[in-house]
Amino acid sequence: MSLRVPYGSWPSGWRAEDAAQAPRTVDWTGFAGGWVRWVAADPADGRNHLLTASAPGRVTDVLPPGWDVRTAYQEYGGRPWTAGPRGETVFVHWDDQRLHRHVPDGTVVALGPASGDRRYADPVIRGDEVWCLRESGGVRRHLVAVPLDGSRSERVLAGTHDFLTGPRVSPDGARVAWTGWNHPDMPWVRTDVMVAGIATDGRLTGVRRLATGPDESVTQVEWSVDGRSLVVVSDRNGWWNPYRVDDDDRWHSICPRPEEFGEALWRIGASTVAALPGGTLAAAHGTGARRLSVLGADGGLTAAGPDLNGWTDWQSVTASGNRIAAVAAGPGRPPAVVLTGGGRTDVLWTTPGVPAGHLPPPVHRTYAGVHAYVYEPCHPRVTGPPGENPPYLIQAHGGPTSRSRPGGVEAAIAFFTSRGIGVADVQYSGSTGFGRGYRDRLRHRWGIADARDCATVARALIAEGRADPHRLALRGTSAGGWTALRALVDEPGLFRAAAVSFPVLDAASWAAATHDFESRYADWLIGDAVTDRSPMACADRIRGSVLLVQGARDAICLPRDADRFVERLCRSSVPVRYLRFRHEGHGFRDPGVVAECLRAELDLYGSAFGFLLPGNGAELS
């Protein structure tokens, strides 16, 4: 029999410590000698490990202890490793941001010069060199070739744009392709596709730009297995769809569909398609949720393998022969490394998940044209009192040109739903996954359209009888923190509180001091209304309670802005709690810090909504 307990006061066995340990970043799959490799964060030591599996469940570290496979390229990072034909592995080590070479006997040797202002990403091995991206001084980016044996200096291959993606060398080694874009554009606004020949001495020849439009975004380029064509994922028809570009530079649409086959390029080297033999492709595609399919040369889509229906999100898609490896997630299925091919599908490795019954499956709803994933309160042994509607959190994802991934590790959401608090994860205007038109709804309207969309979803939940109209709050991280605070400002009668983590608070200060990649982002997001629309300028109009958490080492959303914002809230007598963590940056990694933030957030909602929090000993599994 279920216990009847007021919403928000449910005793849950899913503790803050559990939620903090569960999300393990897993990404950057690839093949080496027929084995699958990937990078996974370990909360125990705070490092990213390069793992490999010779069989399901038989997982080992590729590198000796102490290495951290992670790059700070453009602050958000990128693909940090590659494997060569002789068993060597080249990777970027976090502590010094240098390339290193690991050979099967366990030896690790640093490559290139020791320089504190250089960062590398997206490497590939070509002959006796590593071809990759180099960022120097935080503002200069080049394609470079680094000798594998360290016998000579690295050499510059090309520097065509302010920003570049990594080199994609054709199978015969005779050509290379990459993409680039210049300020003030972002990669989801406009990008160029570049190709060049490779001379016998390794120099690039005949560098040229393929025909792309003034408002065309390309997320990925890859050569076909036979090297006869270049596969380009472009939004020239309003959706990121795949195209084939032949030697005559003619573009051929492979699968024109109102679905996304690409993602916003926040991290260099991200892959949603991979070339397969016979002119086919492995492709992650969909709107909102994603499927993994094999895209035939005729444009037909078939399931990439058996037993894939439970997975609703796919990323880091790579292939070797007809085998496909990727990171997959889904409702009740935390992120896992999945290998499919040859008529079978194997889960090679999985991250810790939420206990059964504590996380409801997300329901995709559309309210007045606004997409959202709704998670209702859920516990296997507790329900709410008859006639009572639960409190709801309106969640705004970061980005803002990004999206939430339905299903998978939603550890923080389960922390609240298992306590009787619903969560609506709003895919507000500007979110990816719903075509370019939906993204462009945010252009020059950041702080208006996104905040309005959060209010639209909240009112729809009230109208449906799902949510208590007097117990609504907002939560958001980074750009989502900006959105949450703007909604709190604009809708003082609708929302009681907001919990924001390392938020954008002052667009002018952020644009002037943030890293180069985002330094002109505000041009597209806001235009000339930089100052008036910032939460910093509206602090005296906030009426609800605020929790703000900030990392002192954040290079994207500056700690000094958080300090100033809290001072203004205090002067306006706004109830505010401020947590500042001196060892954290943009996105917290320490499980103890994450758990402390979740407990503080629950305290905020308990105070704002007036429900009692269960004490020690009142937890149920």
Attribute tags:
alpha+beta; 5-stranded antiparallel β-sheet; 14% helix; 8-stranded mixed β-sheet; 621 residues; globular; single chain
Fraction of residues in helix: 10-25%
Instruction: Give the strand content.
Output: 25-35%
Structural classification: alpha+beta
Distance between the termini: 15 Å
The tally of strands reads 39
Q: Strands of the largest sheet, in order across it?
A: 31-32-35-34-36-37-38-39
Largest sheet: 8 strands, mixed
| Outline | globular
Which stretches of 5+ consecutive residues score pLDDT under 50? none
Number of alpha- plus pi-helical segments = 9
Radius of gyration: 24 Å
Mean pLDDT: 93
Mind explaining what this structure looks like?
This protein is an alpha+beta fold and 621 residues long. 14% of the residues lie in helices and 34% in strands. It has 9 helices and 39 strands. An 8-stranded mixed β-sheet has the order 31-32-35-34-36-37-38-39, sandwiched between helices. Strands 14, 15, 16, 17 and 18 form a 5-stranded antiparallel β-sheet that branches. The longest helix has 19 residues, at 591-609. The mean pLDDT is 93.
